[in-house]
């Protein structure tokens, strides 16, 4: 296996919204889509039920990372929603530890739906984690 074909074992996810980099995240969940099917029964045909594809459904994308100075960028992005929602294009790049891009996903019409900040508890010291969730309406080809 050549070096360029190595699987991405340890990656970070760099998120950019319309050219504004929100920073890198340690985890990314929810990239994918599903074909929604409609079932139709045909009279006199008892052998099967028709499975008809109707539309694509995209799941929420959830990104998490330890709290950093880049949190301010996320806060500004969320704060910009108070004057109205503008659907934007996002790009998520999976990068290896040495910064090589493994894969890129472009997301159409992105809207942030949730930001969860860290929980601070002196009884159980843990890394302060922030999480953002975004929704989108499809993928950009050739991102």
TrEMBL record:
Pfam families: Phage_T4_gp19. InterPro entries: CHP02241 (IPR011747), Phage_T4_Gp19 (IPR010667). It comes from the Bacteria. PANTHER family: CONSERVED HYPOTHETICAL PHAGE TAIL PROTEIN (PTHR38009). This is Phage tail protein. It comes from Yinghuangia aomiensis.
């Amino acid at each position: 296996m050549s070096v360029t074909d190595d699987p991405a074992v340890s990656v970070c996810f760099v998120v950019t919204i319309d050219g504004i980099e929100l920073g890198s995240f340690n985890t990314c969940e929810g990239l994918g889509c599903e074909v929604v099917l409609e079932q139709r029964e045909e009279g006199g045909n008892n052998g099967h039920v028709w499975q008809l594809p109707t539309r694509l459904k995209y799941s929420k994308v959830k990104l998490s990372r330890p709290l950093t100075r880049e949190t301010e960028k996320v806060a500004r992005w969320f704060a910009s929603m108070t004057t109205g929602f503008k659907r934007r294009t996002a790009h998520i790049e999976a990068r290896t530890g040495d910064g090589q891009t493994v894969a890129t996903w472009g997301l159409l019409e992105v809207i942030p739906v949730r930001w969860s900040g860290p929980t601070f508890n002196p009884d159980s010291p843990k890394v302060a984690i922030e999480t953002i969730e975004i929704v989108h309406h499809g993928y950009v080809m050739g991102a």
